[in-house]
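note to self: the first set is below, dont mix up w the second
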Amino acid sequence: MNDTVTSKDGTIISYLKVGEGPGIIILHGAMESAWSHFELARALSDSFTVYLPDRRGRGRSGPYGPDFIIQKEVEDVDALLSKTDSHFVMGVSAGAIIALNASLELKAIHKAIIFEPPLMTDNLVSVDWVDRYDKEISAGKVAAALVTGMLGSQMGPPALHRMPRWFLIMMTKLMMTLEGPSDGSDGPIPMKVLAPTLHYDVQLILEFEDKQKDLVSTIGINVLLLGGSLSPPYLKAAVDRLEKTIPNAKRVEFAGFHHGATGNKNRGGHPETVASEIKSFLLAQV
């Protein structure tokens, strides 16, 4: 089922609803949408009502707006928690940064699941690539921008990073062509439509590191930290950092899984395995 909620500033947030039971909101990551975790939602649907919002700037949800900051997305979560009477939140990648901030502020959240937020830990990753990415987006060079973002964020298998850039751009153009003409308004959102949103997810990372990183030690709820053994080192280091900082944190690392572990199977996900850990955590009487 598809529905909407109105955030504090009047922005409309669209979301999918799957299952029955206590509510959990899953916040997708960069270059993703509500549909990116549909199979995870189905794997949880026998125990929970799962709400999959399209974060700002995607699908039927409203735009970021000129004054976009993390707080805007926290307010989106707050509106959805209130409407659905939910008390659990899961954040994936950039969505995990929002979930961390929401857990600091929103009393309605009783438990949180955090999957590999892209924190800038131990100088293992840089965002120097963002200027080039922004220029390529502005010039309409979407495939080039996507390659810049993939290489800069260290996504994809190691072999991709040894391939010539022209080849990666050519392959990205082919993938975009295969996605067809859809604008994502009634299903999965294609890469060419998602591409401009990456700028704002990097903005979330920078704002978190500047203002909120030292506050996570005050999170008072139980938190499940998830990650994959094959994920880039900076993401594993981010989970290490949170494990040492959040007082009531439990950590699970999935052997043989990478950063796409929570997603649909056609994107390399393992939704049933991830759902099993989430159920155990949320249903535990603590």
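second set (the one i keep forgetting abt)
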Amino acid sequence: MRSTLALSLLVSASVAQAALTITNPTSSSWWVAKSANTLAWTCQDSPSNQFTVLINSPTMASPLAIIAQENNFDCSKIITQDQASQPAGTGYTILLADPLNNTNVYATSDPFEIKALGSAYPSQVSSSASSGSGTASGSGSAASSTSTSTKKSGAVGAGVGVGGMGVVAGLVGLVFGLAAL
């Protein structure tokens, strides 16, 4: 009886650790309307390999799907203005849900704000994504434990997984090349 109880508690603790968590946006890391914005999540020990990304707010009748199927291992995604064009406002949340049953929600973000077009991005967007994520900055440096992005003058940055660092390095080179002109 004791070993059954211990095993049950161990399984319960394991399932609790397998929770998916949205690390960006947060209450202190907003999005800007009609702009490219970063969505980031913990991507280890997820309950699923794929999920649907939805956005919701108190003014919406129901959550709106903005990505039908997203791979969990991506760890972050740039959400374009074509995918999510909600107006400026507060109380928005992002939901990561079962692609076949959107009422089975794996994770819900903290309520966040979408600021008006032209607003400044937060000076630093941090996530607590575990190893496997990287750091994208103006210098193109990389780290292994956090995902950080700085956005200025409308430039878009994103914390991406190691596989996406080549894309980030290419974009940084392009930006600096255009700035030199």
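remember for set 2: The helical segments are 2-17, 165-180.
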